Amino acid sequence: MAEGVLKPLAGLGVLVTRPQGQGENLSELIEAAGGRAIRFPLLEIVPVPLDAEGPRTLADLAGCDWLVFVSSNAVRHGLACIRSVGEPAAWPKVAAIGQATADELERQGVEVDLAPKQQFNSEALLALPEFADVTGQRILIVRGAGGREVLADTLKARGAEVTYAEVYRRAASQVDPAPLLERWRSGEIDLVTVTSGEALDILEQIVVGDHSGQLRSTPLAVIGERIAQKARGLGYANVMAVEAGDESLLAAVIALAGNRREVPNHSENGDTALVDEEKEVTLPADQPDEITATDAYGESQEAPPAPKKSRVGAWVGYMILLLVFALAGGGFFILNELRTKQEGLGSGLDKGDRQMQELLHQISGFQTELAALHSQFATLQSQVTTEDTKFERQIGEQGSTFGERLDSTKNELAASIEHIQRQMNKTRGDMMVADAEYLLGIANQKLHLTGDVKAVLAALAAADQRLHDSGDPGVFKVREALAEEINQLEEVKIADVVGLSAQILALESVVRDLPLFLPHTDKGKAKVEAGPDEKAQQPPATEDGGAGLLDSALSDFKGLVTVRRTDRPVQAVLVPEEVEALRQVLLLRMEITRLALLRGDDGLYKSSLDSVLSWLNEHFDAEAAATKDLVAELVDLKAQQIAVPFPDISKSLTLLRNIEKLRLEAEEKGKSQAQPQPAAAPEGTQP
After folding, report:
1. FRET label pair with 353: which of 72, 258, 337, 395, CA 20 to 30 Å apart?
2. Residue 209: what pLDDT?
3. Burial label, 635 (beta-carbon count in 10 A; 0-12, 13-18, 19+)
4. Largest Cα–Cα distance of the chain, in whole Å?
């Protein structure tokens, strides 16, 4: 008997009409309470095509201020539409109409910015301060096809730009109603659950004729007061409205089952059965008097998150149940005693009958309280189960995350250990080979960047010494290539750039003394007063003083005049400034030649020397000895080769970088040489 008491729905059939694929949790709760869950989905949730207007609206969330989801179905199908074109770069603020919708969003990895704590419907969402003033904001509502317009109309009245994204539609399930009608005829359906107005309409269409009265007399548990009022208007006598959620529906079913239990009654003629009370039942004392939690868009909405209950609360409930059972057992014991007395006293015991009636009323009250306790216990049990499932899921997710992190850390640690082991396993020979590779790389770079052959030869010699000291048989080919590269570099003749530059500077110093081709006025110099020696050498003055002065004047005039024979025409006499300019141009061209030498630009070097020689020939006296000497030295400088092509010294470096291959070749060669050759067969013998 105790087992029967703990199963408040024992022997009762409950019709579950949730949409296809969404009624399994409620069915399991009903079966856990001892009932038979009769699964008959009245609706199907059908996603709209991705090329429809709703999914296309979700393809671009740029400029959207709020994204409002009105149900868990809207979350599942809406996020599928969004992610079909790729995750948005930045999410707008996200609002959920209820806690179950918010939980589904978070389960899918979307952070929820706003959700009501109570009254999970459009009115509760609109009452939040974030939606009090939405002037100029763009709000996108994700929902199914059809539904109430309260949310959108109110937001528009508050100044928002509202757009719908309808991502699914509700359609009647294509199921055969014959099995359901057969169950009704056989009396297997004791209670009915309905979660939306559309489902109630479809149920009315299926159950017609003689079964309509039977349907409307069956206790009905619905989601929200709006659906309850609709059911009462259709003639349903025993309706209970609860907030959305499987646990709330289960509590309502248990309460309805407690009210329809048959209670024994006694009259003057003996025991008679108590008839079912056809009335609208209310929830237990701990439930609100009126709960309106209908989805704002025509489908059932979710319940608020169940408060966490401790195990101590469960045990307190068990103790209360035991106490009630004890009281009920005592009542039944008293009832049996009264029955025994009644059989002995007969019909004259009217007073005893009245007492029996009072006891029966008390027992009926106890049974009502017991049903309420059953409902509370079932709610508590479902909440504990939900919390356990939630904790197990969180532990599983965290365990999976920790496992992935642990595997990643193990892999990184193994790679580090392997790297350290490779470093520790390197021998002195490996270090020598690594040094040689580094020196060869430096030598190649230095040769092409600076052309310092001496430094390159030193680096190559040092690399060869490292390879020699390594004792590695695989470097033999590398050393052969290295020796060839050293020989090629030693044959390269590098011009003495510093010496040639100094030679050009020395030639620039004689430019001041070079004679020009054209005459110029700097030859006329003031006559300097003769010194004592010169005066002593002068002939003594004669008595004829006039003749002496004439001779002196003629001598001075001869010093001012130079007679030169040339086949080139003389255009003009140069002034001192022009003379200085001609010499400065020659110096500038010689300096350009020296800079080209220092840069190693052979083409500019030779062209600059040609320019210097041309300027000398055009403006200076080519017959003068100083000019001829300068020209000869410039011709020698022009014959110098300052740009020398360097040989390719990268072969040794390439071979060394493939040292593993060379080692394998050396090892195979050593094995082949170590194998004994077969002895020659004696002459005249057959092989």
Report:
1. 258
2. 63
3. exposed
4. 207
